[in-house]
Design brief:
two-stranded antiparallel sheet, single chain, little secondary structure, two-stranded parallel sheet
Length: 85
């Protein structure tokens, strides 16, 4: 069954085709471990995708510099250890 609801129609974003227009903007769920997006953080985004979300963004309030003040649960994107995640 298909829907005529524009929210559920595919959306072309430059070279990327999204299956619908449902998305989650970046925010900080405080699921990091030692500043890294480990299993709980990954599962959080995987579950949103399983629910039908076309696009989910990460690292909404990440710490971008080593001298930035620490904040609970934020990703440490200044640390190269984050790259494999």
């Amino acid at each position: 069954m298909t829907s005529n609801d524009p929210l559920l129609q595919p959306y072309q974003l430059k070279h990327l085709t999204l299956k619908n227009r449902v998305m989650s903007t970046s925010h900080e769920p405080a699921y990091s471990e030692d500043g890294m997006p480990k299993e709980r953080y990954r599962l959080y985004h995987a579950e949103k995708a399983k629910g039908g979300m076309a696009l989910t963004m990460t690292a909404g309030s990440a710490i971008v510099s080593r001298d930035s003040p620490a904040a609970f649960g934020n990703l440490h994107v200044y640390d190269d250890r984050i790259v494999p995640w």
